[in-house]
Amino acid sequence: MENVIIIGTGPAGYTAAIYSARADLAPLILTGSQPGGQLTTTTDVENFPGFPEGIMGPELMQKMQQQAERFGARVENGVAVTNVIHNADKSFTVEAHNVFSPDDKKVYQTKTVIIASGASARYLGLPGEEELVKSGAGLTACATCDGAFYRDVPVCVIGGGDSAAEEATFLTKFASKVYLIHRREELRASKIMAARALANEKVEPVWNSGVTGYVLDENKRIKAVKLKNTVDGTESELAVEGVFMAIGHNPNTGFISKDLVDQDDSGYLIQIPGKTATKTPGVFAAGDVADTVYRQGITAAGQGCAASLEAEHYIANLEG
Ligand code: NAP
Questions:
Q1: What is the pLDDT of residue 41?
Q2: 158 membership: H or E segment, kind and range
Q3: Proportion of the chain above pLDDT 70, given as a percent
Q4: Mutate to test the pocket of ligand 1, among 126, 157, 163, 186 (most ligand atoms within 8 A of CB)
Q5: Is 72 touching ligand 1 by the criterion CB < 6 Å?
Q6: CA 45 – CA 147 distance, rounded (Å)
Q7: Could you give the CA distance from residue 274 to residue 135 in angstroms, rounded to a whole number?
Q8: Is the terminal CB of the chain with fewer CB neighbours within 10 Å at N or C?
Q9: In sequence order, what E strands does 8-125 have?
């Protein structure tokens, strides 16, 4: 019987692991298919406190893992959780399988579960997107992380929601021009955020348009996007050096039943207000999997800390 099983290895999962390990709970961490989470898909991280020169995303996550392991956390790589079952004796059964061979099933028993499985930015599904993101070639889904790399060059934001409006406004601090490419001619964003973005003289909306491809220069960096008008089908190219995707995120919650943890319409886990605890005692949620607002590495880390402290308290009460 484990004390704590942590599902996910982004900043929330590893911070929960560091705190649980230092509390002598010997946590078991299951990495899933993307060890290190979303930060491993970015290059320079300049906004995580403690690294004045910045740090590469994968290196930051490696350091968090080392810090957790130093205190006795155990990391099982390549294990994807498929179900969490609440047992009659208040414990949990975690069912999983090997991500490389799904027939290789695994079952764990635990007193508490911290769900820190994160969210995945949506991309358009065009060929080569994954490589463009990984190589830092001009495609990203995080203006806060990467905006400062695009000083005095034209960029575009794809999407029409609050994220797109907010990111377009933010990017005007750096970019020479911010094209806001939306598939309709009206933003979904709240009136105030839409008005703020559109009032900025650097923001130029490109209505009724979808991106159908990326045009690369000789260094394999983006130099333009291909556009298709969603009304009349006309095609064109727009010169940009950075493409910021803001078409929403998908929380990684497919393996969690709504009987165990309430979810909003998009699948984000719902915590008890002001806590990381969920409606099922012993199950805690931390980081992007339950965050529709901030979605930052440091806010996820803070929630991971809180989840660990709450789990420790819960276990102490079980035993007391
Ligand atoms: P969102 O509200 O779901 O908006 C996604 C946008 O992307 C929509 O405009 C949608 O177009 C477009 N889109 C979706 N799939 C697309 C595709 N395949 N191709 C082209 N466009 C596509 O997502 P979000 O903006 O990330 O916001 C998520 C939640 O967080 C919202 O509740 C939002 O209010 C909240 N949020 C709040 C703040 C804040 O208050 N500071 C900041 C950011 C986000 P359509 O409009 O045509 O559907």
A1: 65
A2: strand 154-158
A3: 99
A4: 163
A5: no
A6: 11
A7: 38
A8: C
A9: 28-30, 44-45, 55-56, 74-76, 79-86, 92-98, 105-115, 119-121
